[in-house]
Amino acid sequence: MPFTVVIIGRPNVGKSTLFNRLAGKRLALVDDTPGVTRDWRSADGHVGGLSFTIVDTAGLEDVFDDSLEARMRRQTEQALERADVALFVIDARTGITPLDRHFASWLRKGRTPVILVANKAEGKAGLPGILESFELGLGDPVPLSAEHGEGMADLVEALLPFAPKDEEPEKAAPATVALTEDGLEIPVGDQPEPEEERLRPIQIAIVGRPNVGKSTLLNSLIGQERVLTGPEAGMTRDAIAVDWEWRDRQFRLVDTAGMRRRARVEDKVEKLAVADGLRVVRMAQVVILVVDAGQILDKQDLTIARMVIDEGRALVIAINKWDTVDDRAMALRQVEDKLESSLAQAKGVSVVTISALKGKRLDALLDAVLDSYAVWNRRIPTAQLNRWLEGILDHHPPPLIDGRRLKIRYMTQVKARPPAFALFVNKPGDLPDSYQRYLIANLRDSFDLPGVPIRLALRGGKNPYVKE
Fold first, then answer.
1. Is 457 known as a binding-site position?
2. Structural domain span for residue 354
3. Residue 292 in contact with residue 328, Cβ under 8 Å?
């Protein structure tokens, strides 16, 4: 089993940069602004043949009230308690500060072993800070530069005593393994069996405008205060992923930053957070769009929903704070009207009313997620498709073009996730968009494909499955 390494320290000493370096990819937001990281997040870390779970935390503040900084500190303390070893990061160029001394004293009293890391130690400018760090009483510092990757060998040597005794250097994955567009590993040229697919975690992104209850929803689902919540808008910045199990199904829930209209986003950190949220949507399989019952499906909600559909993800809409609505029948009619007029490309999308704070109807939400995921994965046999196509063409043939009837010869499903179909036409460029929409609408109704995007690609030439 991999061991857990938590990165702690005061704000702006390079904790997230070190996290990204050990994770081997840019997962945590990095900026010169102090306090960018607010929730702890974890990832698989790899360095020098060692494999471990690496945890990034918010900057430590000497605050104990109910402020945001105090809540961030409590989150960091939770992460520290679960770790096998802590990397206490200081800024070698700035030197030791009173806050560093305060938290070093606190760490010495704790049960978690601590490795002192002097970051930003490239060149001679960090030497005074490295020498000064001996006074913290945490042993010899490990000088490194997380930004430039210097000193990683010394860090590996410091981590080795905490690795399991049977830890072996990581071996490269065999060439027969490929990464799909959804981030899943499957054998090349092999289709996973249904049972194998069932064992994979379903990737769920939780998105929406700021302060609609996304983080509260995640906490309520998993039954613990995993991410910070509060009345302050824009609380979440990093996309926080949590592995979780429900009814023998594995899920990976990802909480994202609130998405405001682009014209209103001026802060650099907020731009980074929104970009990170968009990346999460592209990697998700099902997206839960959380909307506020007091402002159901406003313009920004619909913009986010269209973006999810354009990315080809399955969509479920969660109307949060439903317990505060007086006229619920009127509110539901408004939702139906807005979806009918503004989101026709995902007709039949699941809408679930919930109260994240009180934990109401969360099972119904997850049932809708599983139903949408099943539709998103659905495959239709080619013979069945073409029998349906024959009936459609008899009932409503394609229009005349220059006095001649377009010929639709054949149809097949080329992929799932989302369902995508190829339509073989003698003149693909002449088939009107209106007739394509007609085909998609009938396809959705006939084969029960509600709430997911349907792709239709037009191809010329003859039926490729007929031998001449």
1. no
2. 178-376
3. no
| Structure tokens, 26 | 């840019």
Question: What is the domain-level CATH number for residue 186?
Answer: 3.40.50.300
Name the pTM for this structure: 0.65
CB 201 within 8 A of CB 222: no
Judge whether 11 is annotated as a binding position: yes
16 is in an annotated binding site: yes
CB distance 12 to 92 below 8 Å: no
- ∠ CA 355-360-366 to the nearest 5 degrees? 100
Q: What is the pLDDT of residue 463?
A: 54
Is 256 annotated to bind a ligand? Reply is yes
Contact 201, 243 (CB under 8 A): yes
Name which of 50, 111, 102, 43 is nearest 82 in CA terms: 111
Specify if 414 maps to a domain.
Answer: yes
Query: Known binder of ligand: residue 62?
Result: no
Q: Is 320 annotated as a binding residue?
A: yes
**pLDDT (0 to 100) of residue 63:** 53
- State how far the Cα of 423 lies from the Cα of 428, in Å rounded to an integer: 9
**Long-range CB contacts (within 8 A, 24+) of 328-331:** 328/353, 331/293, 331/296
Output the domain CATH number for residue 427: 3.30.300.20
Q: How confident is the model at residue 107 (pLDDT cuts 50, 70, 90)?
A: confident
